[in-house]
Amino acid sequence: MADHQEASVTLPSDPASVATARRYVAEVLSEWGLPDDADTADSVRLIVSELATNAVQHTLGQSPTFTVDVRLERQEWLRVGVTDSHPRWPKRLPAAVQQDNGRGMVIIRWLAVEAGGRLSVTPTEDGGKTVWIGLPWSVGAPARSVFGR
């Protein structure tokens, strides 16, 4: 396997694209050797769902598309990023506002930390941003549940 692998898809900022993004990433990870039933696969699918949902819901029509990037670096580190062209960066909402929504970034951050990873945000050249999640690549390592199963 190569030292560095990448895959990318650009989708319309539409709620139906969230499921498409999730399936795309699951297929890429499967091709790279991550079993579909691995705990990491579950976590990454949830992370992609939350990031894609944020890209659709919180760009307020200012980002007609979003892009999902998947990168495997030296068989050690998996990075998944969702890019949109809206200039506002994600932020944690106050608890009172989170009654019906607003928990996505909390969930993403928790999953990343629990798996030994991290979350970061980088600006894009067009004034938007990419929200990245980095996770240790665990293919071949013993399974460890982040959900307590």
List keywords for this structure.
149 residues, alpha+beta, five-stranded antiparallel beta sheet, 3 helices, disordered C terminus
What does this structure look like?
- By secondary structure, this protein is an alpha+beta fold.
- The chain is built from 3 helices and 5 strands; from the N terminus they run βααββαββ.
- The protein has helices spanning 16-31, 39-57, 104-114; strands spanning 4-12, 65-73, 77-84, 118-123, 129-136.
- The chain has a 5-stranded antiparallel β-sheet, covered by helices on one side.
- A hairpin with a 3-residue loop joins strand 2 and strand 3.
- Helix 2 (39-57) runs antiparallel to helix 3 (104-114).
- The radius of gyration is 15 Å and the shape is globular.
- The relative contact order is 0.19.
Topology of helices and strands:
Blueprint: E1 4-12, H1 16-31, H2 39-57, E2 65-73, E3 77-84, H3 104-114, E4 118-123, E5 129-136
Antiparallel strand pairs: 1-2, 2-3, 3-5, 4-5
Helix pairs in contact: 1-2, 2-3
What's this model, at a glance?
The protein is an alpha+beta fold. The protein contains three helices and five strands; from the N terminus they run βααββαββ.
**Element-by-element helix/strand order:** EHHEEHEE
Strand order within the widest sheet? 1-2-3-5-4
Strand tally, please? 5
Number of helices: 3
